[in-house]
């Protein structure tokens, strides 16, 4: 058991060495271990927003397009009898510049749900919000559109401290986790909608564990193209195998990817929506009438979605003695899975073969000693590999910082064209069925015949 662990450690270490030796060429297609991952703390520097309803923060986040528009999950809004968004709810957006700096609170003056939003299956669970954040200061944000570009995904939640009073709420540091584990088939089994729309939905079992050991799904998903990242999708709903967010055996969380809804959004907003794309040959879905297929089957569990702040479990619900952790650390880039932990059996020592009987004892001890030595050697190799990797990473970060400093102009936390260093480009979707390339971009004209 232990030996196997050492081996996997060494494999990881060696892969990293190989990656180092190869320099930072493009991301290898196979084997995620080769990919050096951007830390989740990189979420600092990204603008984000939370939807407020009637003066209270919801658990819903807004994928910002600009200082004027953003996407929110349609099931975060209330609707009038005629099917339009109920604007008597006093919707507002609170914007952050990076993780904890506030850009302020702004009234939503228009909200439009997707024309095929289905409140039962949560198909096409997107809505477009218009607001005016920033008066004269204009900025734009980029939507991560091409999944093939991404080396990893970050699931992210922003939150505000409950101030209670009338003062402006304060941002809490964002929570973020790297996607871990492939749960596609389980997610598809739990949700026919997901099974039928895998290009436009993501699924994860990862959740924030609250102090009351209840699950809180992350609000957004970001596509990571090291050293860049861009918001790519919004939390839609969860299928829970169990009774509630506090009492379950499994939870599948589904996210609506925005790329197929950019053309629709551009039409609704009469505005340009910008994509973040690294592959210059990538062509986004530019059909404004796109909608998901709605399958007949039902999810195999309890469905919750939209604003979960009302569902936010009170600490009294299920007292669990093992809840030592509060919330997952935003600084951690480690991968946490709530699902796989149960499958690892208690580890036995490498000398475990000695317990087979008196007459085989000596032989067992010999094998045990050999295994122990092999294990130790492998451990030493792993440690050396890890240290080498650390040094490499440190140097890389230094380089990256230098690069950022060089390119970061006056815009605080604003993503700008120069920020993308590795052949990444951003192209605009102008809402007219064309993909346009904004000015002053070195590579980008190639690959777009418009
Ligand atoms: C989208 O639907 C509208 C209304 O039905 C139609 O006029 C338009 O041609 C469609 N556009 C595309 C690209 O299919």
TrEMBL record:
Residue ranges of region Disordered? 303-360
Q: Which SUPFAM superfamilies match?
A: Trypsin-like serine proteases (SSF50494)
Which keywords label this protein? Membrane, Signal, Transmembrane, Transmembrane helix
Signal peptide (from-to): 1-23
Source superkingdom: Eukaryota
Q: Where are the transmembrane segments?
A: 365-389
Determine if Isomerase is one of this entry's keywords. no
Comp. bias regions, Low complexity: 312-356
Is tRNA processing there in the keyword field? no
Which named protein is this? Peptidase S1 domain-containing protein
